[in-house]
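#lab-general

N.A. 3:47 PM
ok so I finally got the sequence cleaned up, no stray characters, all 236 residues accounted for. can someone with queue access submit it? mine expired

B.Y. 3:52 PM
send it over

N.A. 3:53 PM
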Amino acid sequence: MDEVSQYLAGRYISSGKAFWRIFGFPLHQRHPAIIQLAVHLENGQRTYFTEQTAAELAANPNQTTLTGFFRLCQLDTFAKTLLYPQVPSYYVWSNNNWVRRKSGQDVEGHPGVKFNSCLGRVYTVPPNQHECFHLRLLHEVLGPQSFQDIRTVDGVLCDTFREACFRRRLLEDDSQWGATMAEGVSLKSPKKFRSLFAILLLWCDLANPASLWLTYKDYMSEDFLCHAQSLHPSME
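B.Y. 4:20 PM
back already:
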């Protein structure tokens, strides 16, 4: 049985679909084009290898769109003015390298650079992958040339991407909650003070709760210490 012929003979074409085909209207279209952009930690890109190619790929890992962007910013002056998601509008990913577009609108003041309405979309990263999540936040940095360059803020090389996010004020800090705790020291009993800290932990999404605990733990445990000293006078 010829299923293709049977389908063509038996299919029903409505007047609307017939009208659309007779006049040659496009049946589907995607605009603008969307390019997926990789995000990963240094030497953390996905690599496919065989037993024969493992050593070579370990020494010279494949370029990704992210590492290619770093390399592009080292070689191309115009690329240094771009954010990572903006790159596909001006460059094409070809043979593991970003190359300038050959068609599109000319960019004023930059001979040889052309613009096309292509969108770049960076892959999402779950917050439990802490460093990679914060690296993705740092893609608002213009023209970075390396992973170390992204972690450098005001001339200071941060130890982690999270620290760099704090320095660039991409994350909220706990300064307002620290002020709340400082005020609570003089106004609340240790029991109430502990309740205040518990409320902050539950509802205020503290960035660094351990720091607040270490700063105010003596005030929160003052009544326990007094009670213990009353039971054991020799205890300091």
